[in-house]
Amino acid sequence: MNDPFKKYKDLYRDIIFGYSEFRLESNKNKIFVKHLNELETGESERKFNEFLYTATESGLKTEEESVAFLIAEGAWSEKEEQQIKELTDKLSQLHLTKSKLLIKSQLALIQEEIEPIEKELTVLNYERQESMGMTAETFANKKISELTLQRSMFKDRELKELYYTEEEFDYLGHEEVNECLGIYTEMISEKFQGDEIKRVAVSPFFMNAYIICDDNVYNFFGRPILTLTNFQLALMSQAKYLKNLMSNHKSPPEDFQATPDKIIEWYELQSKSSEAMRDMENKGEGGGKSVFGATRDELSSMETNDEKSMNLSEEIEKHGGEMNFDEILKMHGM
Question: Taking the complete model, does pTM exceed 0.90, yes or no?
Answer without folding.
Answer: no
